[in-house]
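Let's practice the habit of predicting before peeking. Look at the sequence and jot down your guess about where helices and strands might fall. Then scroll down.
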Amino acid sequence: MDIIHTIIDYLLHFEVHLDYVITNYHSWTYLFLFLIIFIETGFIIMPFLPGDSLLFAVGAFASRGSLNFWSIGGTLLLAAILGDTVNYSVGKFIGTRIFSQKNHKLLNTEHLDKAHKFYAKYGAKTIILARFIPIVRTFAPFVAGIGKMSYKKFMSYNVIGATLWIFSFIPLGYFFGNLPFIQRNFKFAMLAIVLISIFPGLIEFIREKRKSV
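Done guessing? Here is the structure:
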C-alpha cells in the first residue's frame, strides 16, 4: 500500500517531486513529463493530473540548467497535441455512447456537461480557451469529437492552443520560478498558478449566474 500511495502522490504532485526525479532519473525525466501531460490532456478520466503548475515548475528547472528549455518545450508541446488528438478521436468514435451513460463510474459527467456547454457557447475556439482552464482542458477535445468538428479545423486549433499553453507557463517558470520568494514558498506558488488558471472559468461562471437571475 505504501508503494501505491507513493506512486499516487508523485502523479498528483509531480511538480513538487521534480527535483528528486531529475536528480535520480536524468534524461528519463523528459519521458515522465511527456506521459503526464499526454495523459492529462488525452484521458478524460485523468483530469486531476498536474498541468499548469507542472509547466511552471518545468520552466523553473530549465532556468537552472536542469532541463533544456527548447527540448522540454518541444517534448511537452508534442505531448499536448497528441493528447488532445487522442481525446478528440475517442470522442468522435465512441463519445456518444459514453456521454449517454450518466452514471458512468469512472467519468465525472458533471465535468463533461460543463465542457459540453462551454463548447456549445464558444465553438471551435473552445479548444484554445480550454487549454487554460483545468478540467475543461481535458474534456473539451472529447466534446469536440462528439460534436463532429472537422479534423482539419480541430488540429489547427489544437496546435495553436497547445503552443500558447506550453510557451506561456514554461517561460513564466523560467523567468520567475527561481525568485527567492517563489523558492521559499514553492507550494503556495503552485497553488497560486492553479488558482490563476481557474480564474477565467470562475469569471465566466459568475457571468452566467448573473444572466440566469
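How did you do? Residues 69-99 form the longest helix (31 residues).
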